[in-house]
Every structure is written in C-alpha cells, then in structure tokens.
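Lecture notes, continued. The same structure-token format from the folding unit now serves as the input rather than the output. Read the line below as a description of shape only.
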C-alpha cells in the first residue's frame, strides 16, 4: 500500500468547499486510531501503518495539522517499510508546504529523497516548497527532476506555470534621487 499526496492534491485541497461527510469520516477514523493507540500497550506493526493511512486521509481532507501529527506518530511507532517511510516523509513535506512552513517541508522532502530518489512526488513537493521561498532556480531544478520521472503529471504542469508566472512578475526599479 503506497500512500502519497501530490502537490496538486495538496494545492487543490486548499480550495475545496464543504467536505462535511469526508470530514465526519476522517474524524471518526482519527478517533478510532487514537483510541487504539491509548489502549494498546505493545507496538503492533499494523498500527503504525494505520496511523500513516489515517494521517494521509486527514491531509487529503484538508486537516493538515491532524495529518502531520498522525504521520509523525506513525513514523515513530513500530517498523515502517521503506516504501511507506518514503511516502510519509513526502506527505509531511507537502503538508508543511501547505501550512506555509517551507523550511520543514524541504527538510522532509530531502529526507524522503535520501531514501528514494525516484519519488517524483517528493521532487514535486520540494519544488513547491522552494517556490514558496522564492528560490525559483532550485524549484526549477527539482521540477525538472520530477518531470524526468513523470512528465505527464498535471501537478507538474501547474508548478511549471507558477514558476513561469514568477519569472514574468514585473520588477520595479526605484530611483535614488539624493
């Protein structure tokens, strides 16, 4: 099971209208997994996977802080497969980017990429985080790496547009008349 959030999913979720039924479902899942954590004294492999799954669902529902908390808890508790760790770190990157914390976002994407350089989601998410910091050259480099891995992804076209728009922003020059 691979749980991954793409940058477009992250960006699109910000603009979603009412998610009432999805919100209710995710609230119930969060309560269930937290209750299971409180009542379980031993470390069970499936629990950490459940925490990561519910964390990803929370992020998809726009509950970024819950998603971050559950994902971090899932990474801390129990054994986590390499593939799930890569996805969870990339998800944390995307969530922190949405929460406008690009330094943390970049750190988590870098950690994901240190494990698996073929994760285009992590390249894409880190590109977006660099864009937030107005580090457009780095954003472009990471975007190119993501495009090399999955050139057809719509998310990448969206980031490319954001980078192009940033490059076209008018630059105002002020005169110093002293």
């Amino acid at each position: 099971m691979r749980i991954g959030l793409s940058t477009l999913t992250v960006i699109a979720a910000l603009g979603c209208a009412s998610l009432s039924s999805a919100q209710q479902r995710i609230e119930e899942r969060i309560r269930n997994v937290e209750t299971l954590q409180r009542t379980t004294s031993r470390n069970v492999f499936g629990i950490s996977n459940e925490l990561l799954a519910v964390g990803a669902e929370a992020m998809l529902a726009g509950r970024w802080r819950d998603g971050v908390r559950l994902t971090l808890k899932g990474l801390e508790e129990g054994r986590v497969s390499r593939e799930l760790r890569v996805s969870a770190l990339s998800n944390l990157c995307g969530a922190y980017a949405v929460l406008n914390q690009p330094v943390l976002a970049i750190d988590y994407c870098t950690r994901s990429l240190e494990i698996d350089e073929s994760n285009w989601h992590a390249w894409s998410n880190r590109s977006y985080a660099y864009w937030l910091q107005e580090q457009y050259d780095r954003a472009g480099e990471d975007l190119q790496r993501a495009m090399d891995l999955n050139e057809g992804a719509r998310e990448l076209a969206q980031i490319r547009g954001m980078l192009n728009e940033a490059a076209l922003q008018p630059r105002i020059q002020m005169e110093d008349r002293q």
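Point for the exam: Residues 20-39 form the longest helix (20 residues).
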